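Write out the 3D structure for:
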Amino acid sequence: MKFTRRLVLAATALALAGTDAQAQQFFRIGTGGTAGTYFPVGGMIANTVSQPGKIASTAQASAGSVANVNAVAAGQLESGFSQADVATWAHTGTGVWEGRPPVAGLRLIANLYPESVHIVARKGAGIKTVADLKGKRVALDEPGSGTLINARSILAAYGLKDSDLRPEYIKPNQAGDKLKDGSLDAFFFTGGWPAGAISELASAGAGIELVAIDGPQADAIRRSSSFFAPDTIPADTYKGVAAVRTLAVGAQWVTSDKVDANLVYEIVKALYSADGQKAMGAGHAKGKFITKENAVQGAGIPFHPGAVRFYREAGLLK
């Protein structure tokens, strides 16, 4: 009798353990390079939405927007960060996605914050305008990044292309190291300010300059790509660097229509809860932009049903 009771208890414990294991759902967030803004913001969000025994969310470094969209489409990631332009092109099969099958199942969780285009030049390199990049050693970021797409659009507006430079296709942290040792003249980076790698550069060695993107060329870029908005990186965002006019594009959190709606609902609810908002405001300079009101702005693709449920309950979507 005692033996039978022990068997029943053991079976019950195993069943409960199995239930707990099934109850916990994993939710990965593809971000970007570790020196950019996506990675720390992704870690901050993952920590905020994780719920012991229910949701285990983690941030993963990646090559950036295009790589994240591809990974979400292939089911290799549950979600990822993407620039608004890249997400819309992927969903519609236009822009850089033209000629490739559209990612029809791509869905929006939230618009997060504005990403500023940085052109970081080594002080003393003689680079005062975008046109001055001609013939210089310039890093454009890796293939698969939104930054590379942006860099090419900006160069084109100034009558330049990759072959007019001495281009390198490396991440901002690698570019920062090369800028510091004098083997690189400038690099592009699209991300929320302040970016860790750029802050370190501004405080070390000879320092840096930020190159403006404004005037007729910036107007032309905005006409050809409605996702860009005028932006300013404030003075002393980076030590000793004056305010500079540039362009910005929305950073968005995307997922697949195959991801469970209840899971997405619980994640969005946690992110915009009072505790979640407190964590966003304290965790990163861009965290203060991560609000439920901003979440529904600039959507170029459909929202995920789980996100729609939350935003409707919050009175933000009809």
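The longest strand covers residues 106-122.
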